[in-house]
Design a protein that fits this description.
The complex is a heterodimer.
Chain A lengths: L5 H8 L3 H22 L5 H17 L1 H14 L3 E5 L2 H14 L4 E4 L3 H5 L2 H7 L3 E4 L2 H8 L16 H12 L8 H18 L2 E4 L3 E3 L4 E6 L3 H8 L2 E7 L3 E2 L2 H16 L6 E5 L7 E7 L3 H6 L14 H5 L1 H4 L12 H11 L16 H5 L6 H14 L5 H15 L1 H17 L25 H8 L4
Parallel strand pairs in A: 1-10, 2-3, 2-4, 4-7, 5-8, 7-10
Antiparallel strand pairs in A: 5-6, 6-9
Helix pairs in contact in A: 2-12, 3-12, 9-10, 16-18, 19-20
Chain B lengths: L1 E4 L3 H6 L1 H13 L3 E3 L9 H8 L4 H11 L4 E4 L2 H10 L6 H10 E3 H8 L12 E5 L2 H6 L15 H6 L6 E2 L15 H4 L1 H17 L4 E4 L2 H13 L5 E4 H5 L5
Parallel strand pairs in B: 1-2, 1-3, 3-4, 5-6, 5-7, 7-8
The chains are: A alpha/beta, B alpha/beta.
Amino acid sequence: MKVADHAQRADIFNQDEKRVDWHDETLWWIRQKRDKIAHQIPQWEELREAASSIKAHTLSNLHNYLIEFEKHAEQNGIKIHWAADAKEHNQIVHQLLQKNNINQLVKSKSMLTEECHLNEYLQEQGIDVIDSDLGERIVQLAKEPPSHIVLPCIHKTKEEIGELFHEHLGTPKGNSDPQLLTEAARIHLRDTFLTRKAALTGVNFAIAETGEIVICTNEGNADMGAHLADIHIASMGIEKIIPKREHLAVFLRLLARSATGQPITTYSSHFSKPRAGTEIHIILVDNGRTRQLGREDFRSSLKCIRCGACMNTCPVYRRSGGHSYHNAVAGPIGSILAPNLDMKDFADLPFASTLCGSCTNVCPVKIDIHEQLYKWRQVLVKEGHVDPKKAIAMQVMAKTLASPTLYHLAGKAARITLKYAPFVVNNKFNAWYLQREMPEVPKSSFGEWYQQNRKDS
Amino acid sequence: MRVALFVPCYVDQFYPQAAIASLELLEKYGCEVHYPKNQTCCGQPMANSGFEHLSGGCNHNFVKNFVGYDYIVAPSGSCVLHINEHLHDDEFPAEAKYIREHTYELISFLTDILKVKNLEASFPYKVGMHQSCHGQRGLKLAQMSELNAPAFSKPMDLLNMVKDIEMVELDRKDECCGFGGTFCVAEEAVSVKMGKDRVADHIKQGVDYITGVDLSCLMHMEGILKRQNSKVKVIHIAEILNGSIK
């Protein structure tokens, strides 16, 4: 069965216009917070350039830095695992739990595990997974995927969350006071943290020079999980490497400012070696990243530090919602990452953009996102992932526009049709006309006017 | 200075008055303007849909028409950006390169090449400026809100020379209108919502007119305004600067 594409899902999202307005304004507010704080740093654009250059250098030498990271991490007593794809990653996690007779896992935010569908896999194996990031916990209770990489439940109103908590955590019905709901979540998660023997976290940065990983959260939930568990499993895509600790300063200054308009995340925690009697396992996951690294036009998409700024600024994302992108990572960045995972399934995403370019210019690592959207369109068409009807229409259009004679005929025909037989165009089969009037027909085209009024034609 | 006027296909067919105003403006500032009559389109509709490989014929026709001029000028940011970035021709590569590098959007041609300092125009209305994305972020006609960089605006520099005009400040000064080429029909729901929101911002500021450098955006917003029976009109910036409407 064909999954609904972005346009169909966005159409459904737009049936509730008030909700679209609320979603748009909420995310625009975050974009404004980002502007305010980014514009307070005089060297902001230089920071972006530095971050972009560090990432470009790292990607060009990824092999060496990964080996260096592995060596240093192992020297620190961390166990390194390599996973070629999502399946291998999930199996490694499962085996680690099995080996230690653990059937409960607490997990902080990791978009990689969303990409690998780890939760579903572990549940099938009889493992109980609880997400400890508040937003992630909310969507988990709602049995939905996150709709945003930084703000997983941004599509939910506080009233809906109140309802969900009433059902699952026993909060009073009809109460949507954020303070009360957060307190309920806190109590519920505290018990989880205290009883789980294994914690899984994501990784924001992995430093080759020291073999340590850095995890940024606002809730401290990664720390709570990792510090109370006997086994800490950290899953990371291989592109999370940075060469040196000193580079971290550049990225930490950019990350939270770009993401939420904060100067820094509340917690930026370094994990370099296991405490006595405990284990740290890091799983380095490829899952298509080396393939993307091999695509020259799309390589720089691997610079992404998952701040979500491109989503907050994207006028299409704000008005279509994260779920319309039917991928773990939504929005502009998701639309250039997803086709690498599966061109057929995600062929619609690079077209879910007006190519306005706002994403490229908020991106803290300067990924040319809108240009890659354009390039993916060319690739997807060449690989045949396009509606055959559209392909025929494009061929006709290309022929017409290549020939002045055909063009003048077609232009005249269009104007005559609009003027004398508007019903041919003004109907429900014309997507333009559903909510917009067609332009008024002028007396003549400019070409015709010029011929009548100027000599040299 | 021999200047060829490039009139984008939809401007030619539906908004000839904007092309006439562009022609007259260029002539006022001393250009010898020609209109190569066999011109058609920049090829962007195919390219942005993923069919850039089919735009060869269109490109070739463009080069044939616009070869031999000092500059090529068009009342459109989007089409000019496409030419600047993508025009190629296997038969005439050097000519295509010259054209690519000498094709200007009308406003930046007035400010950067002709260095216009005075205008004979009056427009006694309240006006909102729609910064089209390709003009602004692509051709850098104005500073974009995303960057931490000094503010500037070439269209505003010229509009400020128009007598009696009252320009408004928008809540979101450079948000996309949602036209996006084939996006406007392929993603109809989002496109229309974006357009409605953009129009609402202008209406909130009490404008009589919405202007801009790209008629594609203006056509989209005009379609929405008309469906809403709004009194707010759209007008291409060339018509204001040329004093076409009294």
